[in-house]
Design a protein that fits this description.
about 425 residues, 3-stranded mixed beta sheet, elongated, alpha+beta, single chain, transmembrane, transmembrane helix, 5-stranded antiparallel beta sheet, UgpAE/MalFG_permease, membrane, MetI-like fold, MetI-like
C-alpha cells in the first residue's frame, strides 16, 4: 500500500493559499508588534535617537521597576501554586458528595466576571472602613468578640482640671480622694450624638464606712449652658468606664460606672488617687490595612485566586474523571489510607493535568494588569506594581517613555517564552504516548 503524501508536499500552492490568510493575520497581530517592540526599545523616549541597550539598563536599575520585577516573582510563585492547590482540593473533596456539582458551579462563577469587575468588587471588599469593607467588617467582628472595645474613645478631661494626663493615655487625679465626699470626674470630647441614648448623669450618694463614690459624666450639654465641673440636668452619664484607686503606684481597688455614671469603691480606696485607664478611651479597632504597603500585593493575589481557583478546579476535575478507579480501589484494598491514596496514587496520575494548570496560570500572572491597576490605591500602587502595569505607566503615564515601555514588553516576552516552550514540549511528549 503506497504511503500517503501530505497536501503540503503534493499541492504546495493550494496549501499556501489556505495558509496565507492565517499567516497574514498572525504576522499583523503577533510578529509585527513583537518586531516593532524590539526595534522601539533601542530608541529614546521621542523615538528619534538611537540609545542601544540603555533602556534595558534603566529597567534593571530603576527602583520602581525593580519593585515590579520582585512583585512579579511573588505572583508567579504564589498565585499559580495556591490556585492549583485549591483547585485540586476542591476537585477531590467534591467528587463524592451529591452537592458537588452545585459547589463547583459556585466556585467557577467568578470566572464569568471580568478582571475589571472583580477589581471593583475587591476594592470595596478591602475598604478600610468596617462599615463598608467586608473583609474588615468580618475581621473587626471577630476581634471585638474576644477583645473588649473601649467605652468612650476620645473622651478627655478639661485643661487644668483635677483629672490630668498621667502617661500612656490614662488620666489620674492630682490629689488623693477622701471619703465620704463624692469624687466626681468630668470629661469632655465625646460627640453629643454618641450619648443620645445615654442616661442622665446622677449625683452619687456619699460613701458609707469609708467608701469612695463619685460620678463620671460628660460635662457638656447639647445647646450649651450649665457650669463646668457641675452635674447639670441635661448632661449625660458615661457608663462602663473603669475607675481605679492607686496607692504607691499599685491598684488597690477598681470599679465600673453604672448606667447613671456613678461608681463605688471600697474603703481601702480612701486616700488613693483615682485613675481612668487608657483602655477607656482607646480608639475602636478599625481592622487591617489590607491595601497598605505591606499587604497590598497578598491582598490582590487573594482576589486573583478567588477568580481562578474555579478554573483550576474544573480542569483538574476533568482529569480526575479519567483516572482509572481500579487503581484507587486496589490501593485501598492493599491497606492504604485515603491520604496515602491521594498522595501516592491520585496526585501522580494527575501530574500532567496539574502541570497544564500550573503553566497556564504562570503565563497568565506574568501579564496581570487589571487587578493591580484597579485595586491598589494611588498611595500604594508603587508597592503593588508589576511589569505589565509598569509597561503601561512607562509608556503612557507620567514618563511617556515608550522606549522603556518597549524594553519592559520585550523582557515580559522573554519571561513568557521559556514557559511556553516547556509547555509545548510537554504536550508533544504526551501526544507520543
Amino acid at each position: 500500500m503506497p504511503a500517503r503524501v501530505s497536501v503540503m508536499r503534493s499541492r504546495p500552492g493550494i496549501a499556501a493559499c489556505f495558509l496565507l490568510p492565517a499567516l497574514l493575520l498572525l504576522g499583523a497581530l503577533v510578529v509585527y508588534p513583537i518586531g516593532y517592540s524590539v526595534y522601539r526599545s533601542l530608541f529614546d523616549a521621542s523615538g528619534s535617537g538611537f540609545v542601544g541597550l540603555e533602556n534595558y539598563g534603566e529597567v534593571f536599575t530603576d527602583s520602581t521597576i525593580l519593585t515590579a520585577v520582585k512583585n512579579n516573582v511573588i505572583w508567579v510563585v504564589a498565585a499559580p501554586s495556591i490556585a492549583t492547590a485549591l483547585g485540586l482540593i476542591f476537585a477531590v473533596l467534591t467528587e463524592r458528595v451529591r452537592w458537588g456539582t452545585a459547589f463547583k458551579l459556585i466556585v467557577f462563577m467568578p470566572m464569568a466576571i471580568s478582571m475589571l469587575a472583580a477589581g471593583i468588587i475587591f476594592r470595596l471588599v478591602y475598604e478600610q472602613n468596617p462599615d463598608r469593607g467586608v473583609a474588615n467588617a468580618v475581621w473587626v467582628g471577630v476581634h471585638d468578640t474576644f477583645t473588649d472595645s473601649s467605652a468612650w474613645p476620645g473622651a478627655r478631661p478639661r485643661p487644668n482640671a483635677e483629672l490630668a494626663p498621667s502617661g500612656g493615655g490614662s488620666f489620674t487625679t492630682k490629689s488623693p480622694v477622701t471619703a465620704p465626699g463624692p469624687a466626681d470626674l468630668a470629661l469632655v470630647g465625646v460627640p453629643p450624638a454618641e450619648t443620645e441614648g445615654a442616661a442622665p448623669a446622677k449625683k452619687a450618694a456619699p460613701g458609707k464606712g469609708g467608701e469612695v463614690t463619685g460620678t463620671v459624666w460628660l460635662d457638656f450639654s447639647k445647646g450649651g449652658g450649665g457650669k463646668p465641673d457641675v452635674i447639670d440636668a441635661k448632661e449625660k452619664a458615661l457608663a462602663g468606664i473603669t475607675v481605679e484607686a492607686v496607692k504607691g503606684g499599685e491598684v488597690v481597688a477598681s470599679a465600673t460606672t453604672g448606667d447613671d455614671g456613678t461608681y463605688r469603691l471600697p474603703a481601702k480606696a480612701d486616700g488613693a488617687q483615682l485613675r481612668l485607664p487608657a483602655a477607656n478611651f482607646a480608639a475602636p479597632y478599625n481592622g487591617v490595612d489590607w491595601l497598605g504597603p505591606s499587604l497590598v500585593t497578598p491582598s490582590i493575589i487573594g482576589s486573583y485566586i478567588w477568580m481562578w481557583a474555579g478554573f483550576a478546579m474544573v480542569l483538574i476535575a476533568a482529569g480526575l474523571a479519567g483516572v482509572p478507579r481500579e487503581l484507587l480501589e486496589a490501593a485501598r484494598v492493599d491497606g492504604a489510607s485515603e491520604w496515602q491514596v491521594f498522595r501516592k496514587v491520585t496526585v501522580p496520575l494527575l501530574a500532567p493535568v496539574l502541570a497544564v494548570v500550573l503553566v497556564t496560570l504562570m503565563i497568565n500572572v506574568l501579564k496581570i494588569f487589571d487587578l493591580v491597576y484597579i485595586i491598589a490605591p494611588g498611595a500604594t500602587q508603587k508597592d503593588a506594581n508589576v511589569l505589565a502595569l509598569q509597561l503601561y505607566l512607562s509608556s503612557f503615564g507620567g514618563g511617556a517613555n515608550q522606549g522603556v515601555g518597549s524594553a519592559i514588553a520585550v523582557i515580559l516576552l522573554l519571561l513568557v517564552v521559556p514557559v511556553m516552550v516547556m509547555n509545548v514540549r510537554r504536550l508533544r511528549r504526551e501526544s507520543r504516548r
